Prior knowledge:
The complex is a heterodimer. By secondary structure, chain A is of the alpha+beta class. Helices cover 34% and strands 28% of the residues of chain A. Chain A contains 4 helices and 7 strands, in the order E-E-H-E-E-H-E-E-E-H-H. In chain A, the strands form 3 sheets. Chain A has a two-stranded antiparallel ribbon. Chain A is elongated and about 70 Å long. The termini of chain A are far apart. Chain B has helices at residues 9-30, 37-64, 116-130; strands spanning 5-7, 72-75, 78-88, 91-97, 104-111. In chain B, strands 1-5-4-3-2 form a 5-stranded mixed beta sheet. In chain B, strand 2 (72-75) and strand 3 form a beta hairpin. Chains A and B meet through strand 5, strand 7, helix 3 and helix 4 of A and strand 1, helix 1, helix 2, strand 2 and strand 3 of B.
Amino acid sequence: MPDAPKQDLTVNSKGGSMTVTLKKPLRELLGQTNGHVTAFSLTFAPGKSAVVLMGPDVADATEVRQLGSGAFEISFETEAREVDTLTAAFIRLQIDQLEKEKLPLTEPQTADQWSAEMRSKIKPLREALERLSPKSPRV
Amino acid sequence: VQAYLRRVPDSFDRPLDEAIAACNRAFEDAGRTVDGAEERSRVATDDAASLICFIDSVETHVRARTFHSLPVLTWRNDRLDRVHALEVGPWRGIFLVSPDALVVIGLIFSRHPHKMESRLDEIAALYRNVAPEGFA
């Protein structure tokens, strides 16, 4: 759900461009713009598109993914994890091999298939933890 | 339900299997001797609980398809696009989300921070797969 209600905005078209006036509530949501905002489009279907505007504080940390036909997700990265040089190089090598279709991969799994595979592998661990749990009577 | 999770056997599955085996051994070792057994038992319990939580979290993220919401990886201020980390206790999984978000690939599983010699072993294993014929 958007955190601001849908609003009708006045536009002025001139030549091939358009000027839209954002009144105070929407304008304030863009934050400090320094005269620039970032825009991108989402196409839901042929001829059915939306344009999203972002202030610079948000644009650099925003990622857009297409989840399916007519569905997108816009996410804001609030944190990151720094990796060491060797790990970064290894990841890049793996991605390079993946793009060349040379990276060995397991067959695709659903959540249930992953769970079923792991259940037998971690059964002794779960049992050991249950034995050590203070709530469990010790044998 | 469309299958979604794939893994790299050498750098994700094998280290994960080894971590499970190591946790099992730690429980056995903790109960073997008296000196320090309580501390070893506590470490073994924490590691095992975190590992189970990690595995359960992978299931949750596969089911909800939310790996992209995990922290992204960076190296020297460079962002590794579509590469995300799942960290639970000492365990870390590194996942690559496909551009269309239809597949996620478990690239690396390791204890964090990773031992360099282990990563070199993984690079050597990857190199064996990519080396041209006659050099493998």
